[in-house]
Structures are given as C-alpha cells and as structure tokens.
Write a structure and sequence with these properties.
Layout: H1 2-11, H2 16-29, H3 33-45, H4 52-64, H5 68-81, H6 86-95, H7 98-111, H8 115-127, E1 132-139, E2 142-149, E3 155-160, E4 165-170, E5 184-191, E6 199-205, E7 208-215, H9 232-235, E8 245-251, H10 255-268, E9 275-281, H11 287-296, E10 302-306, H12 312-321, E11 328-332, E12 336-337, H13 342-350, E13 356-363, H14 383-396, E14 402-404, E15 411-414, H15 416-422, H16 435-445, E16 449-460, H17 470-484, H18 488-498, H19 502-512, E17 520-524, H20 529-537, E18 544-550, E19 555-560, E20 569-572, H21 577-587, E21 591-594, H22 602-610, E22 614-618, H23 654-659, E23 667-669, H24 672-681, H25 684-687, E24 690-692, E25 714-718, H26 724-740, E26 746-748, H27 755-759, E27 764-766, H28 772-781, E28 784-789, H29 799-807, E29 812-815, E30 829-831, H30 837-851
Helix pairs in contact: 1-2, 2-3, 3-4, 4-5, 5-6, 6-7, 7-8, 10-11, 14-19, 26-30, 28-29
C-alpha cells in the first residue's frame, strides 16, 4: 500500500497534493522518516497552499528525526495559519519554551476535551498564577463545559439573550478529573435557550466573571426593514436628490487613534449641513475616550450613543443604524484619518449608477484597496501625507470606479437603498472581522454592486482593537463566511490575480515619482538577474528604483526596492514612451546601474547618459559578452565566456556597453567569483574599473563553512531560475546519473519547469520552492551527501548561489567560473564550465563515490 501511495504522490497530477499527504502519513507509520519527510516537505511547498495540518505533519516527522528547532518552526507556522488548531497547540505545549507552552495551554483550555491534556494545561497555568480556568462549549441545544478554580465563592453560569438572563449554580466536584490539579473543579451541561440574536454565556465566581463567550445569532441575515428593489427609477441618482449622509463611528479603545480620527472627521465635514455623525461609545474602559466623545458630541451635527455593556463592532454599529431612519451611511473605523470632502466625493461615486450599493476608498491599509502594496498593511502616513495622496487621487482618478467582490469596512459607504435591502450587519460573526464582507455579499444578492472609489484616499492604522486576536478571529469568521457564500473565496482570488486597481494606483504613482528625484535606477530584465538587481537596489541608505524590462510583453515596470512608492508603475512600450521619459526626467537619476546586460538594450540607457547620468555595469551573468547570457538556443556554452572568441549568438555586447562608460563609471562585481572572472576576461583598461560591491548587509563574500561533511546518501540538486535550457541540462544530467547508479536518491532543492516529469525518473523528489533563507536548513533536513548547483552558465550574486556556497554544510559541486581562484573546501567539486552533460555526470558519480 505504501508503495502505491508513493507512486501516486510522484506521478498523478490531479491527486498529487492529497496523495503526498497520505503517503507521508503512511511512511511515518512505517517508521520511514526520511521518505515521510520528503513527501510532507513537498506538500508544504506546492499549491494549493498548505494548511495548518500539513505543517503539523511535517513538524511531527522532523521532531522524530531529531530536528527539534525545525519542528517548532513548523508548529509556529501552523498556528499562524490556524491559531485554534488542536494538534498544533498540543505539540506546542510539549515542545515550546515556557511562554509558548503557556500560550498553548490557554488555547487548549478553550479547545481541548481530553481531560489528561487539560490537566496538564491547568497545572501549567496554575504555576503561572492563573487559578480561575474553564471552558464553555455549545453542543446542539445544550451548553456544556468545565471549570477549575481556587478560593471561596459560589460558581454560577449565566446565559443572557436580548430579553432574558438565566443563571445556574455549579457545585464543586471532589471526584472530578481535574480536582487533583487545583482546589475545585466541576463539569456542567444546561439547556441553551433559543434566540434570534446573539447569546452571552458567562462563568462567574461570586461577582467576578471568570470566562465569557458570545455565541453569534443563527445563520440568517439581519431582518430586512424597508426593502426597496434595485431599479433605475428608485435607486438612480437625480439632480434633486436630497444629500443626507450619516457617518457612524464605533469607539472602544486606543485614545490617540480615536482623537486623531475624530479631529480629521470634524475638519472634513465642517459647514456641511447634509452630513451627520453618530458616535457609539461601546462601553470604553478609557475615561479619556469617554471625555473626548462628550466633547465632540457638543457639536450640533454629532449625536452620541453610549452602550452600558460592550456589544462589539456588530452590536455597536447595528444599534446606531437602528436610529438612522433616512439617508446614506458611512461606517468609519475609529483608527482612520479622513481627508476634506471625502463624504461628498464618496456619495458622488455611490450615486453614479443606480445599482451601486457600497463604496470603499483607497487606503494604506485596506486589503485590495491598499497602496503602495495591495493586500498589505502599509504604514499609516502622516495627516499631511493623507491629504496629499487624497488630492492626487482626486485629480488623476476623477470619475473612475472599479467593481469589487466586496467592500472593506474601515470606511464603507452604504446607500440607503442597499441598507434597506440588507438590514445592517449580521450577528452571525464573532466581533471584528468579515461582517463587512458579509454585508457586501448580501448586497450583491440583492442586486447591488460593490465598488472602489480610487479618487478618494483614507488613512487607516488597522487592528488597533484586536491586535494579537486578529488571526484567530479571521480564521473563525472566514469559516462561517464560506458556509454562507461558498464562491467568495474563488472570486476574491480572481480579483487579487487580475488586480483591476493597479492602473489607479499607477496613476497616483506617476504623480509621486517626482518625489524620487535623485534615486539610482537599477535596470534588469525579468530573468534570474532580476534577483541580483533587487539585492543591489536594496542596499541600506541608498535610495534606488528597480526598472525591469519584460521584452516579451513590451513593458517596463518601475518599483521601489523596498515597500515604498512606486509599486504599480508600468509603462507599455512604445505607447507610454513619452510618459516614461517624463518620469525619468523627474527622477533625474545620478547613476544608472545595468544588471542584465543581455536583455537591456543600450538604446534605453543612452538618453540617460546624454542627460548626465553615470552608467555602472552590475555583472550578474555572462551578458556582457553573450547576448543570450551564456548559452545559445541549443544550450551550448558561448565560447566568448571562456576565451577571446566571438559570441555564438552573433552579437558581441561587450563593445557596445563599454562604450557607454564614462570616467566615473564602474563595473560592479556582486561577489568574489564575479570579481575574479571579470579581471580575467576584461581588457586591462576595463579591468581597472572593476569594483567589488561593498555591502556586507546585502552581498557576502564567497566563503565555505569550516565544517563540511556528508549528512546522508542522497544527492541534492539546486536549480537556479526557471530557464528552459537550465532545466534541460539538469534533466539530462539526472538521467545519466539514474542510468549509471539507479539506487542513488536525488532531492531537487527547489521548483522546476516540470516537477512531476523529473519525479517520474524514479527515486527522486522535488521539494518545491525553497528560498535562500531556508536553503541550508532544507538541505540539512533532507539528509544529503552533497549538493550540485545545477547552473552551467555564469551567475553572480544570486541569493541562492550565495546561500549555497556560504551556508550549506555538505560537500558542494559547481561549475567554477573563478577558474580555481576562489578558495573552496577540500570535499567540494569545482567543475570546468566547459563540461558537457556526459563529463559532468561522470565527475559527479566519481565525486559521490569518494565522499559518501
């Protein structure tokens, strides 16, 4: 059975992900840890994206294999994905440090039903001074659970609905399974009263609340109050439309953010009689916030609602909505910063078409509407920068709107017709996340559209109320959302992939590009040299932009080397050439660094030289001599790289690039191998310009570890990049090794053009994507005898190459473009770059026979 599973895992594309998991479990059960790990490791690295259970499985195998640190790292990853995962929390309580074990114990108190494990969790938390513990669960029509406590006082269970409050006395049980761990313990089971709204269940010791759990309302939409069908006559915008908008701001904590929000809001709506504000004090514990709300509520257009108990975001918003009888509504988080006139501009977009139901502005932290990086919590700009970005957005994106699957609740404009149709936020969700998505998806069911207004920008700090609880709340509520709207996940993924807001972000970035005046521009193609270009541009203290040319799509993309603007600035060539010239003129780069000499035409750089820019050449590959970078279309190594011969590809690039250099130009070597290669291949006058990139934070010298020894019997193969010629060379090399020595296990450390085709060769596993950061640990976990860098053409400064040389502690085989000048370990195998497949295979077989 195990062999069948292994075969399916290797060869069947449709069953592949699930088969990998089954095969890993089967091999673990048989005690074949190495095979089990390779299967589980690949499952964690391929699509569909691995879930918590996959990381927990890999962690269990790693732990049994003696890799405790790797196992703990995987458990941490599993809990990032699913904080309430039972298996991962159980392992963390056993494997983690003192604080991690305590965190896991708290989770298990809520989740676990195994009394032995609960006893361990209670004992651990008791040791940290936590002596009032318990859990509340719902099973059908009953509330069940347990409590463990110390001290005197009557324990009672309270169940509150919107109309009733019921209590049950719970007596201590000396025979309880947890009684030996703490002074008192008891279990309980009581009826759960039916209610159309949420129910609050509390365990109280005397008057002190030990535990409190809110159970959302049944799976049903909030009742519709004034349903108005979407028709052109009833919902369309008319010239005599009465402007009436109420901004609802629920407030709980974070005084500084709330003060900033309300100040910006009141400034933004000054003297606009059509705008009202409803503030909801959701039982804030901060007296400063309560006083601030009292102060703001003295304005004639502001009304304050105070909740006696904390109702959470859903309850606070719905209480406010129940008091608003007419007009549109904006739901606004208390950690936002709004610009002048935002209400009327959002309203104009909302009424631009009769079927628009919700409108979301752009933001720094607004999921799909985020910029500069979409789906990222970008830092909150200053109040002045929010105003500046909004002014640009209003100018360059005027009249635009973009349809979205849903809206985002940090600032959500809802038309009256839509609000009447959907009836407000659903009580079905736990506080804080995805109830806004639910409202928008229900709006679509009623015939309304959700759109983004890219002409409005609102700042949002984000997660001020929930902090570390966010992931657990999102995971919990996402499960509920999928039950209700099963197609949402696919729609959301498609929207993310298409990114229809990219052009709107790019329009703003065109206006911002002047702010990058004086930045270095690093030019590259879109191949492996791009990684070297990005590394160079990321040097601290040296502002740089990466401009990547995709010749196939005739597009030049300009990106900040870090997370700053721009991140969506693309130019279609030749159509956008005038705009590109304007951008380059605004930047006025003092230096232009060309990192992909085979794929960047000199014609693109010459105008910059004419404007006074100094050109540097960052030699990442063989593109200075060969227009194909080192290998011709048949995969033959270009003779121009080895000696003073002409390029196979018919165009010598070195002469044209060297002519562009001026007195201050440099030829940059990203590592010591490149430096040696350049000094060997360049003419003496050009060799004088060679400079080793001096940035220890980014580039590192090539230096093999002091302790190098085989860790197993398998051969590791490291692919670098996804070029077809590199894949063909690696495949042919593996075939020859398979033919000569079929018993040798092979592990490909990365992803390839066709993983399953390689795995079909037999006794071979392709891990899937491996980052430079994880390369050394991945090699160690797979128990390799040695590793081959399967890159024959020159490549310098690439993060995978650097990590392979400097961090992999097993013998290393590679094609030596330093021609013996770089010091390596005695166990390593430097191979001549001129080696063909047959010669390289023979060298590898002899080397592996000697080493392991």
């Amino acid at each position: 059975m195990g062999a069948v599973l292994d075969r399916i895992a290797a060869l069947d594309p449709e069953q592949h992900p699930a088969a990998l998991e089954r095969a890993a479990i089967a091999n673990l059960a048989r005690g074949k840890l190495a095979e089990a790990f390779r299967l589980a490791d690949r499952r964690c690295r391929i699509l569909p994206v691995a879930q918590a259970r996959h990381y927990t499985l890999r962690a269990e195998i790693a732990r049994q294999s003696g890799f405790a640190a790797a196992a703990l790292s995987d458990i941490t990853k599993a809990l990032e994905l699913a904080p309430d995962d039972l298996a991962a929390n159980r392992r963390l309580m056993q494997w983690g440090d003192d604080e991690q074990r305590a965190c896991a114990a708290r989770r298990l108190i809520e989740l676990d039903r195994d009394m032995a494990l609960l006893g361990e969790a209670v004992a651990r938390l008791k040791g940290k001074g936590e002596t009032s513990l318990g859990a509340i669960h719902r099973i059908g029509d009953s509330i069940t659970g347990w409590a463990a406590w110390q001290g005197h006082g009557q324990l009672s269970l309270w169940i509150e609905t919107d109309k009733t409050r019921i209590s049950h006395v719970i007596e201590s049980d000396p025979q309880h399974a947890l009684a030996s761990k703490i002074e008192h313990a008891a279990s309980f089971s009581v009826p759960f009263p039916a209610s159309p709204t949420r129910r609050l269940v509390s365990l109280q010791l005397g008057r002190r609340v030990m535990i409190q759990t809110a159970f959302p309302a049944p799976l049903a939409a909030r009742p519709v109050k004034h349903h108005t069908p979407v028709t052109t006559k009833s919902a369309g915008r008319s010239k005599d439309r009465t402007f009436e908008v109420t901004v609802v701001v629920p407030v709980y904590d974070d005084f500084e953010a709330t003060e900033r929000c309300l100040k910006s809001l009141m400034n933004a709506i000054t003297d606009d009689e059509g705008i009202k504000v409803v503030l909801v004090d959701d039982a804030t514990p901060d007296k400063r916030i309560a006083m601030l709300l009292d102060s703001v509520a003295t304005a004639s257009n502001v009304r304050l609602i105070r909740n006696a108990d904390n109702l959470g975001f859903i309850g606070a918003v719905n209480r406010a909505l129940d008091t608003i009888r007419a007009g549109d509504v904006i739901l606004l988080n208390s950690d936002t910063v709004v610009p002048d006139g935002f209400v009327r501009r959002l309203s104009n977009v909302a009424h631009a078409a009769p079927d628009i139901g919700t409108v979301t502005p752009l933001s720094n932290n607004g999921e799909a509407t985020s910029l500069p990086l979409a789906f990222t919590s970008n830092p909150l700009p200053s109040i002045q920068d929010v105003a500046h970005l909004d002014a640009i957005a209003a100018r360059v994106n005027a009249g635009r709107l973009v349809d979205m699957p849903d809206g985002i609740g940090f600032c959500l404009y809802i038309t009256r017709a839509c609000l009447d149709a959907v009836g407000g936020l659903s009580d079905h969700y736990h506080r804080g996340y995805l109830e806004d998505v639910d409202l928008c998806l229900r709006a679509r069911q009623s015939g309304f559209r959700n759109v983004c207004a890219p002409s409005v920008y609102v700042g949002h700090s984000g997660s001020a109320s929930f902090k570390t609880e966010k992931r657990a709340l999102v995971v919990l509520n996402l499960g509920r959302l999928r039950l209700r709207f099963p197609e949402y996940r696919n729609e959301s993924a498609a929207f993310k992939e298409l990114d229809p807001l990219k052009s709107s972000r790019g329009a703003i970035e065109r206006e911002l590009i002047a702010g990058r005046k004086g930045s270095t521009i690093v030019l590259s193609g879109v191949g492996v040299a791009m990684e070297v270009a990005k590394r160079y541009a990321a040097q601290p203290g040296k502002p740089a932009l990466v401009a990547s040319l995709d010749r196939g799509n005739a597009t030049l993309a300009m990106r900040d080397a870090g997370p700053d603007f721009p991140q969506s600035l693309d130019f279609r060539l030749p159509a956008d050439e005038p705009t590109l010239v304007e951008a380059l003129t605004a930047i006025a780069p003092p230096r232009v660094v060309v990192a992909d000499l085979a794929n960047i035409p000199t014609a693109l750089v010459r105008p910059l030289v004419d404007r006074g820019a100094v050109v540097d050449l960052l030699v990442a590959d063989g593109g200075l001599w060969c227009s194909c970078g080192g290998l011709d279309q048949k995969g033959r190594l270009c003779p121009a790289l080895l000696d003073d011969k002409e390029c196979n590809c018919g165009r010598n690039t070195s002469e044209s690039w060297l002519k562009l250099l001026t007195r201050d130009s440099c030829i940059l070597a990203p590592d010591t191998v490149a430096e040696t290669f350049l000094r060997r291949r360049l003419p003496p006058n050009a060799a004088k310009r060679v400079r080793l990139v001096n940035s220890s934070e980014i580039f590192h010298s090539i230096e093999r570890p002091g302790a190098v020894m085989p860790r197993g019997e398998a051969l590791g193969v490291l692919p670098v990049g996804l070029a077809a010629l590199d894949f063909a060379f690696m495949r042919d090399l593996i075939r020859r090794i398979r033919h000569e020595r079929p018993e040798t296990g092979i592990v490909v450390l990365g992803e390839t053009l066709d993983d399953l085709a390689l795995m079909a060769l037999g006794n071979l596993m392709v891990t899937g994507a491996v980052s430079a950061k994880d390369l050394a640990s991945t090699a160690a976990l797979h128990g390799l005898g040695g590793v081959l860098i399967a890159r024959r053409a020159p490549l310098f400064g690439h993060p995978l190459m650097t990590a392979a040389f400097n961090e992999i502690g097993v013998p290393l085989a590679f094609f030596d473009w330093s021609f013996g000048s770089v010091v390596t370990h005695g166990a390593d195998l430097p191979m001549p770059p001129s080696s063909n497949v047959a010669a390289a295979a023979q060298d590898l077989l002899s080397w592996s026979a000697r080493q392991w």
